Amino acid sequence: MRRARIIGTGSYMPEKVMANSDFEKYLDTTDEWIVTRTGIRERRIAADGEFTSDLAVNAARKALDMAGLTPTDLDLIVVGTITGDYPWPATACIVQDKLGAGQCGAYDLSAACSGFLYALNNATALIEAGNINRALVIGAETLSRIVDYEDRNTCLLFGDGAGAVILEGQDGDQGVLSTHLHADGSYLELLYQPGFGTAVTPTEALVRDRGYFLKMQGNEVFKVAVKMLTEVAQEALAKNDMTIADVDLLIPHQANIRILEATAKRLKIDQDKVFVNVDKYGNTSAATIPVALDEANRSGRLKDNNIIVLNAFGGGFTWASACLRW
Ligand code: UT7
Predict the structure, then answer these.
(1) pLDDT at 1
(2) How far is the CA of 35 from the centre of ligand 1 (A)?
(3) What is the pLDDT of residues 129-143, one digit of tens each?
């Protein structure tokens, strides 16, 4: 069977580190609260003049290098992001130009923290159908630009970063075995950016009253996230006639260590089979999974024929999973 196989991974995290102690200086919070409630110790912040497309391009170059390809070898670029350089054109088009990737198709997918898995699903389907052969799939965010740094409920959770994979069509058993997408738009107001878009009139008051920024009801999001992350991982296993014992590594969306632990417990998977880097980067939305995948890959944690499950949950709500044979 024709499968989409990951032949290169790459990631890029901005240099600037924002530690928990930086929030202690001006907000009513403590390093202890942040670490205990979220597992996050620090996050990366894009430099002035550094945009989502720049982060994406840096990650993409590393993935292309690993794959031994040049940008003109690509048939498609898909970027999962909710913090594109502009509302339009797509950040993928900017990435294509900055990379020098010729005139291949390029578009963004907006599925918040599930954006990378939605993009992976999309590119995989096109490869399996024979429509394209090589795709660059990216998750990239500069959430620091939409986070309200006066809001202690949200600002310390999020960070910036980008991860990328190169998918290639190959015959055989290795590659993306299945992907699973879900959404429930009725949860809109639990996690969204209410002050940006054509539903909103941009006014000075909107910015002054901090309406522009990301809003989240963390507690409510937490409960649904654990449930859906568990169910969508189980769906991927069932689809492939596998049990949790078959899984070599679970790479979940990195939002909060307590969400990761609660999901692992429900799935009955050992914590040492769950990839965690939320302590270093916080929640980078669509970037968390491809960044984690790249770190796992480069550290030698992914072995030939390993079964890897990816699962994500985010604004929309959206949730998704993928099962890979490495
Ligand atoms: O990527 C997918 C989308 N996002 C997520 O998955 C995030 C999901 N939610 C979460 O991760 C957690 O709900 C949070 C980390 C956001 C919050 O943790 P929590 O355990 O749900 O805390 P809480 O909102 O129930 O607040 C507990 C207490 C409250 O005080 P009282 O009412 O008990 O007196 C908050 O006011 O902690 C207080 N609090 C803080 N205290 C110190 C809230 N934020 C802070 C803070 N520092 N930064």
Answers:
(1) 87
(2) 11
(3) 999 999 999 999 999
pLDDT tens-digit map of 85-121? 999 999 999 999 999 999 999 999 999 999 999 999 9
Ligand 1 midpoint to CA 100 (Å): 43
CA distance 184 to 157: 23
Query: In the structure encoding, which two tokens stand for residue 138, read together?
Result: 């990216």
Of 167, 112, 121, the C-alpha closest to 140 is 112
User: Which of 41, 222, 228, 229 has the most ligand 1 atoms within 8 A of CB, as the residue to mutate?
Assistant: 222
What pLDDT, on the 0 to 100 scale, is given for residue 170?
98
Query: Domains of the chain, with CATH numbers?
Result: 2-172 (3.40.47.10), 177-325 (3.40.47.10)
Spell out the residues 6+ positions from residue 228 whose beta carbon is closer than 8 angstroms to its own.
182, 313, 317, 319
